[in-house]
Amino acid sequence: METKAVEPVRRRRTGRVVAGVAGGVADHLGIEVFWVRAAFAALTALNGVGVIAYGLLWLFVPQRAASEPEEPSNPRERQQALGLVALGIAAAVLAGLFSGPVSGWIAGPLAVALVGAAVVWREADEAQRRRWRDGAKSGFLGAGRSTIVRVLAGVALVAIGIGVLLVNSYGIDQLRFALLAVVATLGGVAVLTVPLWIKLINDLGEERRVRIRTEERAEIAAHLHDSVLQTLALIQKQAEQPREVKRLARGQERQLREWLYGRIVEDDSEPATMSAAIAKASGEVEDSFALVVQQVVVGDCVLDPNLYALVQAAREAMVNAAKHAGVGEISVYGEVEPERVTVFVRDRGKGFDPKAIPEDRHGLADSIGGRMERHGGEVRIRTKSGEGTEVQLMMPRKTADKRETGARA
Amino acid sequence: MTVRVFLVDDHALFRAGVRAELDSITDEIEVVGEAGSVGEAVAGIGHHRPDVVLLDVHMPDGGGAEVLRQVRTALPEVVFLALSVSDAAEDVIAVIRAGARGYVTKTISSQELVRAVVRVSEGDAVFSPRLAGFVLDAFADRPGAAPISDPELDLLTPRERDVLRLLARGYAYKEIASELFISVKTVETHVSSVLRKTQLSNRYELSRWASDRRLV
């Protein structure tokens, strides 16, 4: 025996002429596909044994899964194969005519029926491939018009073939009786097996539901693992540092909220609306300074460059409060009105005397005041030593924006 | 006089935490009982007759709103304060409309929680900044908002709006009073009036409101 691992036979998906059986057998045996096809053709000459063998292999050998790689088909090989198929059929017909028990008037209709069956079977293969491709979204039935046409044509061919065969053997009257009997039997069987069909369909639906549920669960589990469990592990490690623990817990809480209530869709994308932008800025300040930013935004609108500047100024105000106020919580309130957007950043910390700020501390003057003025906004600061600080930022809205934001973001 | 408080939350750990905090920092409040489900809560509140119920918004079997529905008519003197981690406006507004006198988030500090409990026990409403924001959103005048059928209930007065804005900005009642040159009592009246409107107004259908709100 060879030492190579024996792989089960799989029908080829590419480079096939009928169903990829010959190719699969060739791959399995490790020989040229030409010889396998030739063998099938030769066997076909022996009273159609080759066709029967081919059909059985088609039925029982599964297609190669979509995940397995395959070499592309080769046009020359394909031509050769078509020639062999024609040769095999011709040989079978000739052999039938001259010698065998299978005479021409049987072989003809039989061949028609076989072609019809082949067409239908190929469609079944096609449907399977489609399922692989689309992730089980469409079944055999959701396949489109061309498929239905092909299947119907195949069925018609089979029916004609068998019909002609039977008419030739028994005559039209007997056939009518036989047909009636067959139809009646089929009808009876169909009625008897109705519960079975219903169960089958239900099982299929149930199986699909279970799979969807499982996938959802897996997604949630993955998310929790990536975020919550990791954070919990970090918190346990750093239990000695309350500041760090607080920061981690707060950051995780925010992330989980965003995920659960879907306020921000992606982590890295720039927020497109006022509320999302304020939420993001608050989050960043919380993360960097380990405090709580209590933020409330009323109304919402799409960000434009001016409003972006407003958010940046608000962020700067938060950073200032976090650095200098000496508090554990900052309140941020944003309100979007048709004519303007206002943001208030407030702390209950030390407060300061605005005139007494040293020259080198440019944060308030440049980052906040300058930024707002450049974009046509206003800043007001209310503060007193010991009574906290409130930075009020106001930005007028462009008139063009009003209409645009009537639609949903 | 101590305020008798009953805790309703499906997380035993959280109940234990709140109980320990309330017991340790103040004598004003006495926790008389707790419950972990809607059924337990209804039975427990009926038995203990507390002054204030601290009510979780999210619980199995209908949550805080369901407890309110089952208890409110039989025991109108019991006051409810919603306590939740939820960020979803429709959940919070639903509990308020079911009859809660206020809403605070679970991250509230112990001192503030005590103050909130005492305040609702005295008949006032308690609006956290977040709730104030939700209510402002709900009553906002914007294209596509539901029509006004009863101006008494469906519109906030400019003064009420000012009070709500300051609440949302994190101001305490006293600070609001001095900011608007009114008395603390008047601030309380405004807040109670806003609460009443939130509970009774037919301005918005809640399910629709959640998707219609926000964009001006």
TrEMBL record, chain B:
Signal peptide: none annotated. GO terms for molecular function: DNA binding. The modification 4-aspartylphosphate is found at residue 56. Residues 4-121 form the Response regulatory domain. It comes from the Bacteria. Keywords: DNA-binding, Phosphoprotein. SMART domains: HTH_LUXR, REC. GO terms for biological process: phosphorelay signal transduction system; regulation of DNA-templated transcription. It holds the Pfam family Response_reg. Residues 149-214 form the HTH luxR-type domain. InterPro entries: CheY-like_superfamily, NreC/VraR/RcsB-like_REC, Sig_transdc_resp-reg_C-effctor, Sig_transdc_resp-reg_receiver, Tscrpt_reg_LuxR_C, WalR-like. This is LuxR family two component transcriptional regulator. It comes from Saccharothrix texasensis.
